[in-house]
Amino acid sequence: MATIAGDRPRARGARRLSAVRQAPLVPVLILGALAFVALFADLIAPHDPTLPVQGATMFAPPFWMDGGSALTPLGTDFQGRDVLSRLIYGARVSLIVGLMGTLVAGGIGTAMGIVAGYVGGWVDQIIMRVTDAWLALPALVFAIFLAAMIGPSMWNIIVILGAVYWTRYARVIRGEVLTLREREFVKLAEIAGASTPRVIKKHILPNVMNTATVLASLTVGVVIIAEASLSFLGVGVPPPQPAWGLMLSEARPTLMAGQWWLTVFPGACILLIVLATQLFGDWLRVRLDPQTRNL
Amino acid sequence: MASPILEVHGLTKHFPAGSRLLGGRSAVVKAVDGVDFAIQQGETLGLIGESGCGKTTTSKLILLQETPTAGMIAFDGRDIATLAGAELMAYRRAVQVVFQDPFSSLSPRMRVGDIVAEPLEIHTRLDAPSIRARVAEVLQLVGLQPDVAALFPHEFSGGQRQRIAIARALVTDTRLIVLDEPVSALDVSVRAQIINQLEHLQRTLGVSYLFIGHDLATVAHISHRIAVMYLGKLVETAESEALCARPMHPYTRALFAAALPSHPDDPPAQRTIAGEVPSALALPSGCRFHPRCPLAMPVCSEADPALRLRDGGGEVACHLY
Amino acid sequence: MSRILDVVDLQTHFFSFGGERVVKAVDHVSFRLDEGETLGLVGESGSGKTTTCLSIVGLLPRGARIVGGSVRFEGEELTRKSQRELRRIRGRRIAVILQDPMASLNPLFTIFRQVAEPAFFHQQLRGRTLRARVQHLLRAVRIPSPEWRMRDYPHQMSGGMRQRIVGAIALAGGPRLVIADEPTTNLDVTIQAQYLDLLKDIQRETGVALIFVTHNLGIVAKMCDRVAVMYAGTVVEQAPVRELFNTPRHPYTRALLGAVPRLGSKEPLYAIAGQPPNLASLPTGCAFHPRCPEALPRCASEAPSDVHAGHGSAARCWLVSDGVAHS
User: Fold this and answer.
1) Which structural domains are found in chain B, ordered by start?
2) Neighbors of chain A by Cβ distance (3+ pairs < 8 Å)
3) pLDDT tens for each residue of A69-87
4) Which residues from B are below 8 Å from C273, CB to CB?
């Protein structure tokens, strides 16, 4: 009748190491660099982004072209403001709005999804109908409408984008919760007498975090583009605070005139950050799914 | 004899079946149809039957996951349907469950220590050190080292996970554990470990088990008494040894005939019964087993037999007796 | 009695993490099978029994490869055949029955279509001949009213019937060897008994050889002529069935026999300590030694080789020599 007490499971150190080794280099580097730039913008940016640069002309091209100078390496805009500095400070806006907006959207959406999925019944019905109605509105138009109503400012934009984009979370999370609800370990908790808040907090929420995280990393890109679009249309973060979308908007008249650096650089930055978040999100999805993890 | 801790009288559960009939008659699945049994403190009642017999539904009714259509379940003499508030929590504290699949019954993102501690957190006001101590105590009871509490379920094998599930079922002062096919998903050598462990725990703690299974040999080994179910009704109950020595109901005999030999030279069983379990939506008239019964008589298709006493302190429902 | 299958020193390895990790799923496995014989391949999870079967028919998953040994089927060497050649053999001369009938049956096609497929491709049967053959097969597996039921879909049938239909598909090509991998695990007890009786009858009538993979020694006692017990990728013992049950040589076999409850007996079960090993990190020496109640010091350092006794029996254990078990 002897049984061995304490059969030991295998070591976890080896698995942790391999996880670090597999991290996707390019997205992490890009995002890290952008975060660094945004954080230390005050130290890195050569000039004040909102004021014209002393001793520089308007519409100066990048330094490697005729008429450019090292003082303003990427050129100046129609007010003589340094493009590089504006890009650097603009990173702040994009990152903050992108991340915070996603967090707000994710927070609302996950909460709604969990409540709809677990509680079910008419609560579920109400939440789902609201979600349907919300989704029927074109996101950007809705955002513009809200921005026009409550006035643009960085925090308002964050809240607005959160309010617009939560629905995609709610649907997906609700689906997950519907499956989770039937899993044996949830039933076990219910049988033991756990209250609904307890079940949600300890059993449902931790198990939807994977999906929520992946969804978030993939939504960041969308939110950033939305912010850029709002800025482009003039209802985003108000000037003189630089934002990449706003830079694009201001540069529109110059497209035909040949001052390409005013559109290409901000556009490239938007492209870069969205690409990085998408790649990272994709890696995360594969990494967090136990089935594809080790291939 | 001390009064039983769990008594079931006339337990019935009907499910409405998604009706394809337009207007009027809606089909009903009589998953459990008038079942009586009792479990004493410290004893194991084995519940055996094939798919559709109602054993899973019975366990759900006992665990309050479903409410009975009719009949009563009494715990320590109190009807559990009337329990509320503190008394209901006391019931949930005293009656726990261990499920079949060790890979989905433990919360994957919780540490083992937290999983085992959960009933304590729900039902008691113990402080963290006391909870940790109790968790360590109960992990050792099931043959695991206390320091496994920091690990996650996926780091353990199936057998170890079942032990964790059993530890969790014992952490409060549990009096009855419903074991729903607890070893069916485990390897043969591990099954023996778990069965021995369960028997040992019963001897030391005096906890009762409702052991639901489909393997006759395993159920007969661990149970003091066995109840055989078919299509929602009990067809025979008896003490384990008495049932094995003399199975009376033709269905019980069929189960024995279908049981695999333990040696190649064991006398070959008589040919097993033909046919399959009929759909619960279209129950045969009279005795539900009569279409497949090799000993069926005319009366069997007309009247449902009542349970009559048999040797070994049990009952059998068959017109032959 | 001709030799149908001869597996000699088979080795199959799984490669993962880009080749960094090698798991020896099948490690020097040998057994043989004659016409009309039933071989029981017994083992717990991780023993390598399923991988062995997949190796025989060339259906290994990505990342697994046969790295050594030979599989001779009716005199032909299977390990050196291309997938194209194996496709002509699979379904026609070797058939496989798996555990979950719902996974083996395509929910979109009728029973007729699925049972007819092997005969359609391998024997080029058509039209009325094909229909007659399908009905004959369904009758052989005791499906009532086959001419009606063959128009049904899998979801309209019960588990037991589906498994019998899988059996009919297996027999449709007229195989000489059927490999059944735990076909009754998901079936009710009485249905399982019917199915096993059916298999035995079919075998008697057609003389097909059967490899029955299972962890259930009761099935072995009922169905098999010879038994090979696998542990951690190796065959630790093989013998004719009576010999295995009467005089088991390997401690693992003895432990397995002691762990199974006997109907009507309350004798305490023998529980083997520990659990089946992780194939990625096997113990040194004999893979069973950490759990073996009779382990010698030698067992921890040297892996034993086969000790042969009469009529194809062998055991891989230091305690055994000259075919006699020492204690």
Assistant:
1) 6-17+28-259+277-317 (3.40.50.300)
2) B, C
3) 777 888 888 888 888 888 8
4) 193
Instruction: Report the residue from C16, C271, C281 with minimal CB separation from A1.
Output: C271
Q: pLDDT digit string (tens) for C3-13?
A: 899 999 999 99
Distance CA C194, CA C190 (A): 6
Check CB contact under 8 Å for C271 and B269: no
Interface test with B, best of A185, A187, A205 (most B CBs within 10 A): A185
| Domain covering A91-288: architecture | Orthogonal Bundle (1.10)
Q: Do C266 and B241 touch (CB under 8 A)?
A: yes
B122 interface with A at CB cutoff 8 Å: yes
- Of A59-73, A181-195, C313-327, the poorest mean pLDDT is in C313-327
Do the chains contact at C259 and B256, CB–CB below 8 Å? Answer: no
Reduce the secondary structure of chain B to three states and give it as a string: CCCCCEEEEEEEEEEECCCCCCCCCCCEEEEEEEEEEEECCCCEEEEECCCCCCHHHHHHHHCCCCCCCEEEEEECCEEHHHCCHHHHHHHHHHEEEECCCCCCCCCCCCCHHHHHHHHHHHHCCCCHHHHHHHHHHHHHHCCCCHHHHHCCHHHCCHHHHHHHHHHHHHCCCCCEEEEECCCCCCCHHHHHHHHHHHHHHHHHHCCEEEEEECCHHHHHHHCCEEEEEECCEEEEEEEHHHHHHCCCCHHHHHHHHHCCCCCCCCCCCCCCCCCCCCCCCCCCCCCCCHHHCCCCCHHHHCCCCCEEEECCCEEEECCCC
